[in-house]
Amino acid sequence: ENVFIGISGQYPLVQNMTVTEGGTANMTCRVEYNDNTSLQWSNPAQQTLFFGDKKALRDNRIELVHASWSELTISISDVTLTDEGMYTCSLFTMPVRTAKAYLTVLGVPEKPEIDGLTKPAMEGDHITLTCMTHGSKPAADLRWFRNEKEIKGAKEVNASGKTFTVRSSLQLHVDRNDDGVAYTCRVDHVALTQTPQQATEVLEVHYAPRVQIIHSLAVPQEGQYLKLECVSKGNPSPDPVMWTKDGSELPDLDRMIVEGRELTFTSLNKTDNGTYRCEAGNHLGTSSAEYVLYVYDPNALGQHGTDHALIGGVVAVVVFVTLCLIIVLGRYLARHKGTYLTNEAKGADDAPDADTAIINAEGNHAHAEEKKEYFI
Question: The Ig-like domain covers which part of the protein (predicted)?
Answer without folding.
Answer: 12-104, 112-204, 209-294
